[in-house]
Design brief:
The chain has eleven helices and no strands. Helices cover 67% and strands 0% of the residues.
């Protein structure tokens, strides 16, 4: 139970830390519960979208939903995406890439990466409101489940003392893999219309491509890589749904 609480403390900015003091070692095992955190962040996105759409045009409601998740997570994943783009865009060697990613300043590749990401995400309002609400929940949860497996595929690329978050995630046990699968796949299995379920193929493909790139460049992953992996897997889910709706 403390590990579950640690996941909500780590991946959101809500004051879950007030409920109990969580031992430091619990934060090493938060990744299997990342999809369950997605139930909260994706659920709040969907609820915000639905309520806001009763008052505002759908494009405005969708922007408010995206902004709500940014507030919930403290832009944790977006910061990772910016650092990932800067490092992999500006670094030619493993050492240079890691150094750039650790720099707190954002560079040209990071700015361009975030602009392109948000330009694509803000266009999803072309879906019908009920469909977009369902996809907002399913994409968040399912992409977090896909991204969580990075800790099983690759080692951590830095020394633990060099981690920006002060935490190096432990690899999942078989039981944690099953737990993550249940949390991650359930919304998509229950809520997605059958015709849109093919979009679930997109995040695993993106995962394998990015993981192979990280292995070749860094021989491992960093926390920034986890954030970038989640957002890009999620974006691929949305784009997959868009293709299915318009074909």
């Amino acid at each position: 139970m403390q590990t579950l609480l640690a996941a909500f403390i780590f991946f959101t900015r809500l004051p879950f830390w007030r409920l109990s003091q969580v031992p430091a070692h619990c934060f090493k095992r938060v990744v299997p519960y990342w999809p369950l955190v997605g139930w909260l962040t994706g659920g709040v996105m969907a609820l915000t979208l639905w309520l806001a759409a009763q008052v505002f045009p759908l494009p405005v409601a969708w922007l408010l939903a995206l902004a709500t998740r940014l507030l919930l997570t403290g832009c944790l994943h977006e910061d990772g995406l910016a650092d990932f783009c800067d490092g992999f865009g500006g670094g030619a060697t493993r050492e240079r890439t890691l150094a750039i990613m650790k720099d707190s300043r954002i560079g040209t590749f990071g700015v361009i990466g975030l602009i392109l990401y948000f330009l694509l995400m803000t266009q999803m309002y072309v879906m019908a409101l009920p469909t977009l609400c369902v996809v907002a929940l399913c994409a968040d949860v399912y992409a977090k489940w896909c991204a969580s497996h990075l800790v099983n595929f690759l080692p951590y690329a830095r020394k633990e003392s060099e981690s920006k978050a002060g935490v190096v995630y432990s690899r999942m046990t078989p039981g944690e893999v099953v737990t993550g699968f249940v949390f991650g796949a359930l919304p998509a299995c229950l809520l997605l219309p059958p015709g849109l379920s093919w979009a679930c193929l997109c995040p695993p493909v993106v995962f394998m491509l990015l993981a192979a790139w990280m292995r070749r460049r860094l021989q491992g992953y960093t926390g920034d890589c986890c954030g970038a992996m989640f957002l890009l897997c999620e974006l691929s889910f949305y784009l997959g749904v868009m293709v299915l709706l318009w074909t």
